[in-house]
Every structure is written in C-alpha cells, then in structure tokens.
Amino acid sequence: MTPSRRTLISRAITTLALSALSALPALAQGSPKLKVGLMLPYTGTYAAMGNAIENGFRLHITEQGGKLAGREIEFVKVDDESDPSKATDNVNKLIKRDNVDVLIGSVHSGVAMAMAKVAKDTGTMLIVPNAGADAVTGPMCASNIFRSSFSNWQPGYAMGEVVAKKGHKKVVTITWKYAAGDESIRGFKESFEKGGGKVVKELSVPFPNVEFQALLTEIAAAKPDAVYTFFAGGGAVKFVKDYAAAGLKKTVPLYGAGFLTDGTLDAQGADAADLLTTLHYADSLGTPRDNAFRLAYAKAYKLQPDVYAVQGYDAAQMLAVGLTAVKGDISKKAEFSAALEKARIDSPRGPFTLSKSHNPVQDIYLRQVGGKKNKLVSIASKALADPGRGCKL
C-alpha cells in the first residue's frame, strides 16, 4: 500500500470516528458541567443567610466528590439584594444569558415569588432553599418547583398550638409588612384561635424598617398575655434587643418563628436568653446524621451551621436525587420530578418527604435559647404538612 493511499484511509477512518462521536448524546461524551444559578442575598439584611445556604449547598457537593450524578457543577452567582423589583431581570439573565440548568434561590419571599413565576413560565428547575412564601407551593406550584425549607405557615401554625397550650388568651403579633411576615402571622393565628386564644392586635412595619419603639409602646399599652413575632437577620437582632430594653421581656413573654434566633444569637447576646421559638431545626438534635453534618460544616467553614446551612445542604441533596434518577440528564423533567415526589430526604433536621405541592412534610421543633444555642425542648408538631392551598398539581 502506498503512503498516499494509507493517508487517505487513515483520514477516512478519523472522519467516520468523529461523525460517530458527534452522533452520541451529549451526556455520553463526558457529561458537560451542570450550570447552577445561585440567586441569593450576598449583601444587606439577609447576607449571612445567603452565605450559609451556599456553604451548605457546596458542602454536599464536596461530599460527593465535586459531582452530582457524574456531572461537575459550575456555579453562576447573582446577588439578589433581597429586592423584589430586581428579581425578574436577575432570574431572566441567569436563564437566558447564562443558560443555567437549575435555579437555587432565594431568602426573601418577594424575590422567590418572582423566581417562581419565571421558573413556571420557562420550565426551569427551581429549588427554593429558604423563602417560605406560601404561594410558591400553593397557587404558584408547578411540577418543576420544589422547596427544601418550609412554608411560612408551618412554624407559625406550630407556635400557635404551643402558645394556646400554655394558656395564653390574648396575644399581640408584630412583623415586617411583607409576605413572609403576613403568612407566619396567619399560620399562628389559625392554630392559636383554634386553641381558644385571641389575637387582639396585629402590628407591622415596612420591610426592612427596624424602628420599633412606637410599636413597643403600643404593645405595653395593650397588656397582652404574650407576643408572637416574625423577624429574621438584622431585623431580628434589633427587635430582640429593643424588646428587652423596653422592659417587655420581663413582663410579656415573647414567642417567635425560629428565624428570630437562628443565626442571630451572637449579636443578640443575653437579650435572647430563654426565648422560645418553633422551627424545623434545632442546634441540639443529637442524632448521628446531624452530628456528622455539624462536624463536617464546622471543619469546612470554621463556623457552626444554622437552619439556612441545612436548607442549602438539603437543596443539593434534592438536586442529587433528581439527577441520579435521570442519570444526569436534567432535561428529563418529568422523571426528575417523579423521583423527588417519592423521595425520603435524609436531612440533618430529620428525614422528610415532600407534599403533593412539593413542600417538606417535617417535624417542627420547639426550641429554647440557652447560651448561644437554640436547644431542643420537644417536637411541637409531628410531620406537619403545609395545606398547599390553591395548588393544582
């Protein structure tokens, strides 16, 4: 065979091989990176929460060797600034400009609502690692939208049961005037009044206002048996300190959704001592699963994890469940969703499943502040499922 003939045959074989390779599915060629859009607050009132969620999310991926279902993860990050007015533009950039495969976000309920609308319209997979806006797994529910955290209704409803059982009859509520606060108050009021109590006054301030003095004066004048509140982040720090400074802590018991004291205890100091809150996580669960998570998180970040870190971690666990079921091909959305709908997530908070509307069905714990921990007192509500009102999945 002449050299020129050998060269022609070699080129023909190479061309055939390349043609065959190009005909293979993309995932069979070495699995391109999965693009994850992190739309979280990295500045402002909720910055610490955004960072904790990302830390938790990354921790699970690290534990899996940097891949989920064989695919390396590429992150695209956007600071949503907890600003709903910027949310639609931000999420559209992630989807249309950055071509992300899945969205993870956010903390602020108003931002999450905008994300959910765009995700629903475009079919982009969305896992919400915090924002509890009831509508996300209510009227806005969709087969491609999941939550790894809670609905605002859940901790509020659980605390309403607790406060009613303690014999309190008259309660004043106070929160920021936005979806998270309104819905937490509604959950509390529903169970508290079912238990024989009465919410005598509902107070609110615009988000993220932290000028509480006038409302604290109203609380003192109303002389309720107790106060229920929803605040988080920097607002929670300021409210707890102002409540104590006004002398109310000694005379009117303060109860809250767990965000009041989660991730805020260092700043609140002694003013938070003994406060009772309800949430789907506590700092002293003492289970092998939680102990292992807390140790790994502390080693990785030189910080103690909080509920936000758990929710980020579980968002990554949920993504892994769906991806494993579709062998890394996230375009198979029906199969991805079906796998999550029947999954049992082995969370540091305790195992949970997902409701028909894709919200966690989980234990809500009663916790008490002791030192710098939200210590477990008891289970306030066992396997509490959000009603998912308005969801038509």
List keywords for this structure.
single chain, 393 residues, alpha/beta, eight-stranded mixed sheet, six-stranded mixed sheet, 12 helices, 14 strands, 42% helix
Give an overview of the whole structure:
The protein contains twelve helices and 14 strands. By secondary structure, it is an alpha/beta fold. Helix 3 packs parallel to helix 4 (109-122), helix 5 (153-165) packs parallel to helix 6 (179-194) and helix 11 (307-325) packs across helix 12. The N and C termini lie far apart (68 Å). 50% of the residues are buried.
Residue share in β-strands: 15-25%
- Total DSSP helices: 12
Biggest β-sheet description? 8 strands, mixed
The percentage helix is: 40-55%
- Summing up helix and strand content along with how strands pair, one would put the structural category as alpha/beta
Question: Total strand count, please?
Answer: 14
From the spread of the alpha carbons, the general shape counts as globular
Low-confidence stretches: 12-29
The topology string of helices and strands comes to HEHEEHEHEEHEHEHEHEHEHHHEEE
What's the arrangement of secondary structure elements?
Elements: H1 3-23, E1 34-40, H2 47-63, E2 67-68, E3 71-79, H3 84-97, E4 102-104, H4 109-122, E5 125-128, E6 145-147, H5 153-165, E7 170-176, H6 179-194, E8 198-205, H7 213-222, E9 226-230, H8 233-245, E10 254-257, H9 265-268, E11 276-279, H10 288-301, H11 307-325, H12 333-341, E12 353-354, E13 360-370, E14 373-384
Parallel strand pairs: 1-3, 1-4, 4-5, 5-6, 7-8, 7-9, 9-10, 10-11
Antiparallel strand pairs: 2-3, 11-13, 12-13, 13-14
